[in-house]
Amino acid sequence: MDAIRLQNYRCFDDTQMIPLKPLTLLLGRNSSGKSSFLRMFPVFRQTFETRTRTPLLWFGRLVDLGTFDDVVRSKSSSNEITVSFKMTNGIAESAVMKTATYQNQGYYRYYWPIIQRSLEVWPVELSASIARDLDAKVDYTSKVSIKVAGHNLTIFASKANHLSKIDINGRDLTKYFAEEMSANVGNLIPILRLRSVEEQPMQSTEVNGNSKKVRLPSVLLTDLVKGLRARIVHGRSRENKAFDLANSFLPNTNESLLRQVKTRSDAGTYWLSHVLQWNENNEDFKFFRDYVLALHLTTLLYVVNERISAEMHNIHYLKPLRATANRYYRFQDLAVDEIDPQGENLPMFINSLPIPDLADFNKWLHGNLGFRVDPEQIGGHVSLHVTEADQSAHNLADSGFGYSQVLPIATQLWWQVKTGTKSNRQLRQKNIDCGFFVVEQPELHLHPCMQAQVADTFVAAISYAKDQNSGIRIVAETHSESIINRIGQLICDKKLNRDDVNIVIFDKEGSSKPCTVTCATYDDQGYLQNWPYGFFSANRI
To answer: Does residue 284 contact residue 20 with C-beta atoms inside 8 Å?
Structure first.
């Protein structure tokens, strides 16, 4: 996810598209919208990891934003919340091909050569509008717009699970889809179904030279077969030849689809004499392209849903006030794969690390924050001991309060870059790297010097992930001048690329006006650009 846009959400009319860089810092006065913006990320995570009846789960295990009525902007004329994403590293062409092959095994012989040379990754732009169905008393996705592989797909719903229109590249193809939709559990995009032809009369076709009555599986496929026979398949050709041709092509970019139709030598000379004249503006090609897209629309939407789901599952969130340190913790023999939002499972996480991983973790911790931590298990209890440079170890409870606040941050960051940069086949297939690390007020209870070290830790995670040909995106809400200044110094020292940082500044002029969003950047010397004068002063101008 490279950018996000929120419309009609809480205090925002429209944030516009906000780039999400490897390091995105959110700044602003109190009640200016920083937390509202940031907490959409844990909303995404809790939605996509839970079976829900609604497109977004406003109240879950990570955050509680109330209900739809609490979240939609009350002073807006619209009663819809719109969430938009941009993903440059979107869906793999091969993923669409493999899913279609699984769903349509009979055409494997046509799909497989395409899959073998499918190396493209299609960028995805998605916008989903969420409304409230007052009769059903449930939220629903009222509109989904997707731009993928150069095509524009739009789905409209008039109420929950009720399709009203489908538009593919400006062509209305609503009549081919069933009016009743299924809410896709834990996803923004509903499940569509092609309208069947059960009510239509059986049609004659030739099978092995014999005439046979058959019922084609959908109204769309019936019309596509008719269109092919009328345009580019010889009228005397058997109907099942047109049927095979209609099924043997999959959604693709205009360029790739044109290349495929022009190299189908088994389609016959009549086909080739027509399609060799096609280009992207040819009306017959547009008809064919849009009907092929519609025929496999459910497959395409499934792959997009899976891609978004994988992205959202890889969001890791820490709340502003992490758990305070205890002298002892009751031992739990649990497998811990991430730090919980308040860091309460931190002792069990560290205690469960194998010795080589614990050594690697402490090397990371000492290199960035200047201390190490070691677990000690006595009977049914675990304690954590902190060791600073040239000092003896002491219990975490006897250390400054700031240690208990910064330790979950450093631990989760280390774990994400360690696991995300491994050769994880499942993640690589879905184009996911180390994911998102989202944290509120990382500077809490820290001296300015250690606040600067938190910035060093952020940059160390970004650099390590890059060195492993991976990536992590850190989104942090902060009030720390030390962090802002330290990032500038690291850019000046060439330890961080200025293009890897985005500073998002939130502001609000009055209680009745919407919050506004602007972006600031650094230059090559680490100086801030587009920065509001006197931002950190007591009497801001």
So the answer is: no
